What does this fold into?
Amino acid sequence: MSVYCKFAWKISDDLSVKDALNQFAQRYFDAQAAVQLEEYQYAVDNGMNDLRAVIKPEHHLITFCCRYKKDIQRTENIVKKFAHENGLQIVVLQ
It folds into this structure.
């Protein structure tokens, strides 16, 4: 059962989604790059298939979906840390 993190990144006009996800994947998962799986989904965890970034263009958000509930806390921590380090706006999802 997949579970969404409660934190997302706001997509601003000057944000390159692909560049941000590449940096995130490289920094926290030793990946060469984020891999686009579908139009709005990226694998960011270096092939483990436990975490996906899901773009929500209608809400201007990058959300994160974990395969396992046990990974939520760790993922939320690195999502927030990366956002703070890179000046990205964090949105709390309901």
Remarks:
- The chain is about 30% helix and 30% strand.
- Residues 3-92 form a domain with the TATA-Binding Protein fold (CATH 3.30.310).
